[in-house]
Each structure stands twice: as C-alpha cells, then as structure tokens.
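Q&A log
Question type: sequence-to-structure
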Amino acid sequence: MQTVRQPTIPPIPETVKVFGQEMPISAESFFLALAEYLGLPGFGEQGFANGMPFTHPDHFYLKLAANLAFGEKADGSDALPEADEKELEIFRKARRHLPPSVFDENRWREAVGDESLFRRTVYLLNRGGRYQAFEKAFKPDGTVANVYGRQINLYLEKHAKTKNSMTGKPYWPLPRLFHPYTDALGQPISDEAQGYELTLLTHRVITMTKSRTISNYWLLNVMPENYIAINPVDAKRLGFKDGELVKVVSASNPEGLWDFGPFGKKPMVGKLKVLPGIRPGNVAFALGYGHWAYGASDIEINGQVVKADPRRAAGIHANAAMRVDPILKDVGLTDLTGGSVVFYDTKVRLVRATPEEAKTYSEGVKRIALDGPSGVEAEAILEKALKAARGELDPEALRREVAAQLGLKAQV
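Response status: OK
Response body:
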C-alpha cells in the first residue's frame, strides 16, 4: 500500500518564473532556479538522461507516481490498469480549479512521457495511491503473502544483560504480552475500579500536525477546533449528546485542570463528537489545539500588552489528564520499549462541564506579565538598534552598551 499526496488548492505564496515556466515559489523552484543560473547539468530542456525535460517540479514528482503505477516487475505485469476516457474526465474535473502553474495536463503528460503509462498514473492518482487487493494478502493455505524477506531476531541479548533500574530485574529478551497499564515497578494500575473506564487516545489531523500549526490560519480555517471523539454506544450509555461540552478527568488529575501556577488554572473542557469510527471504550482528541500561550492569552511585556487571538485557544488539549506514575509521582507512565511516555493507556472519565467551566472553553488564561531585566532601557536600545541597522550607529558600540546594561562581559 502506498498513498500519494496531491495538490488540493494552489499554494498561498506567489509564483516565480524558472526555465521560462510559471511555478509556485518553493524549495524545488529555488533549486531549479539555482541550477538554471549556474547552468548545472541534469536540469533544463534535456535534464534527464533519456532527453526528457527537467524544468518544473512536476517533471520529477510525476515520474515517482508513474513508477508506482508501473509496479515492481520490469515486464510490466505488475502495472495498474490504464484509465479510460471516463476516468480521464474525472481526473480533469477534479483539477479544473487549479492554475496552470500547478496543474497543466500537457506538462503532466510530458513528465511521464508515455501515453499508456500516463493513463496508469491517472488511475493511481484518481484513487489517491496504490493498494493491494485484500484477497491477495493471503495465500490459499491462509498464511500471509507478504512475508519478511530477512531474519527476524526474537531474542535481544542487550535486553537480557540490562537491568531495569526500578525493579532490579533484567529486561525480558523474548516476545511476550505485558500488562499495558502498569507503574514503574511493573504493578497493574486499577483505575477502572474507581470509575475511570474510558481509554484516552491522542492523534493528529493532517491540517494540524504540530503545536505551532495553530498559527497557520489557512490550515486552521479547515478545522477551527478539535473535539473529543466518542462512540455512540458510550455516548448513549453515559447520557451525552453530540456537541456537548465535557471535562476530562483522571485518577491523577481528578479536577481535570491545567495548573499554570501564577497564571491561573484552566479546565480541560472539550466538545464531544459522536463517531461510530472510534472503538467503544475509548475517547480521543487531536493534538495541536487548546493553547493557553503562543498568542492564546494576553501577554504584557514591560507594560505593553499584546492582545490574545481567540482562534489560538480553540479546542482542547488534554495531556494533563495523562496518568502520573503512582510510584514516581512526578512523571507519566513509561513505555519500557520506546522509553517515552505512555500516550494511549490512560483511563479517564468524562463529566458534564459546569456553566463556569463551559465559559473557559476556547479561552486563554489571565494576562501573562513579563518584565524585562532591571536597568535595561528597552525603548532606548530599540531606537539605537534601528539607527545601527541604518548605518547611523556603530553596532559594536551598541553591543557593548547592551552587554554593560545586562551585566555581561562583551565578547570581542
């Protein structure tokens, strides 16, 4: 199985002209422009060894898609079917909104070079990738068809010779089933007995892959807030409805709060979304939302207020509900194999948000005030920095002055 990403909308940045062709400004267009300026081989009208052009990023990426469509066998017996006229029409209509700098059928055909292979590539792109038929995944005797081609080591010598610093016992060197919800000493944790019966899962959506992606408003506009996904069976059993605001609580965070010390507390309140696609007994939220900093709260710096943007506070971030190890008491549960925190085993309970808690949804925290170092004349330094940038002041002299105000020794 291999998925293929394709352009859905034109890139936001401006376009540039390289090798006489209009294209979105990007790392690829920069490399092509550099090659054009330096006259590098391997680029231009006959950039590829077979004489095909390499003057646009499409000339490279379409070949990768064509390779996938052709398959792994040199005789072509593994190739995908050719797209018929109906499929070609679907292909064109799905891209009719894209400008020529992004989609030009003639350029895409030129990039592949062969009409038959181009049609096979269209067949691939129309499906978003290449997928093996389910019936081909197994042999007639029921064994898997896609077997590992090399030796798999089931015994790990390093594990056998290394001791767990908490238990004093060697790590187990062979495959076995470990209880998934244990403390640092390997003892089972029984949070379910206290009513924490739902397993909390985290994941990412393709438009919010990092915590900093919240600042990309084009992506944020696609999905302005996240949600807590819950199965219809659980929602009905617990008396919850789609769109209802709930708070996430756990055995190690029974109040369901983020504690920011001097900047206040924020309940972990999120909006429910009832989805059949999540397994009963689990709830899940997408990471990257529910900020309290990074522009989500007012920040005061030396008396100057930078106002919050409410869009950055939208949604929920519920990592504070993650189970704290009851033995260590100041760290989350640990995955002994990967050495990271356990992200998928915490048992939680959902409780209906109170009216006061509901008011905090998609809000930051109270104003964060940051004072600069005492004795530093920030405004005066800013003015001098602008003069230095204009060439009206010696930057080295300014550097020495700032170092003196901060009590540092200026480096020569």
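Response note: Residues 57-70 form the longest helix (14 residues).
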